[in-house]
Amino acid sequence: IRKANPRIRIIDSSDGIRNLLRYTQESESGHDHHAGYNPHLFASPRMAAKLALAVAQGLKRLDPAGAALYDRNAALYAARLNALADEMQALGRMLANPRIVTQHGVFDYLARDMGLTVVAVVEAHGGQEPSAAQTLAIVRAIRNTKAGAVFTEPQYPDDIARTIAREAGIPAAVLDPVASGPAQAGLDYYEKIMRRNIATLKVTLGTR
User: Fold this and answer.
1) How far is it, in rounded angstroms, from Cα 40 to Cα 4?
2) Displacement of CA 157 from its chain's centroid (Å)
3) What is the SS3 assignment for 192?
4) What residues have CB less than 8 Å from 25, skipping those under 6 apart?
5) Can you list the alpha helix ranges (DSSP code H) found in the chain?
6) Of 2, 41, 87, 102, whose CB is crowded by the most CB atoms within 10 A?
7) CA terminus-to-terminus distance, the chain
8) At residue 21, what are phi and psi to the nearest 5 degrees?
9) What does pLDDT average to over the chain?
10) Is pLDDT above 50 for 30?
11) Are residues 114 and 88 in contact, defined by beta-carbon separation less than 8 angstroms?
12) 161-176 confidence digits (pLDDT tens)
């Protein structure tokens, strides 16, 4: 990026945010993950609220004259996202089975916020299918931990994940991390998709 434009100003949306998660080196399925910090903060409303506030701080440094506007808008949006996060956290305490399998590490922050346990991931890297041995190991991990469901993402093919769910005898469903969307998405698009995820979690994992 800097080679293309040496004068570009970059805002790190994770600046100042603590308790970042690292990818685990190995899941219970024996499926290796890549190392380093997990960048998928946006898939958690709680962390997305922090991202909004961090972006506002970066904009203030670049445009001090607009500081009051950035502060006000970021605070309002963060409050909405934190209210959504509270709703999802409350759901986490009600779910009948909080053990899940995900397509890759995109929902780690959301799982932490909701009290869910990710017992295995289907793809160590998004779009990279597991080997036959890894697939069998994931099925074993599901059976050993009595996981409740496999969750796929609309951004990736789901054939392998649904095959794993079928072999393990558990449901598969789609959770959307809002990593993509329509070009002209409404300002409430993120919240709408996350509320759709709430409904999916309720139906798929059940409540008690």
Assistant:
1) 26
2) 17
3) helix
4) 32, 33, 35
5) 45-62, 67-94, 108-114, 132-145, 159-168, 189-205
6) 102
7) 50
8) -90, 145
9) 92
10) no
11) yes
12) 999 999 999 999 999 9
Q: Are strands 99-102 and 117-121 parallel, antiparallel or unpaired?
A: parallel
> Cα(40)–Cα(48) distance, rounded to whole angstroms?
10
Residues in a beta bridge with 174: 152
Length of the chain: 208
The percent of the chain in helix, strand and coil, each rounded to the nearest 5, is 50, 10, 40
Matching residue, tokens 């959504």: 84
CB-based contact 83:48 (threshold 8 Å):
no
State the pTM of this model: 0.89
pLDDT tens by residue, 45-96: 999 999 999 999 999 999 999 999 999 999 999 999 999 999 999 999 999 9
Give me the residue label for tokens 């300002």.
187
Integer CA distances (angstroms), 143 to 53, 73, 99, 136, in order: 41, 46, 11, 11
Q: Whole-angstrom Cα distance, residue 205 to residue 162?
A: 16
Q: Which two tokens stand for residue 25?
A: 């080196």
- Is-contact 116 43, C-beta < 8 A? no
Task: Supply the DSSP symbol for 76.
Answer: H
Structure tokens at 149: 């469901």
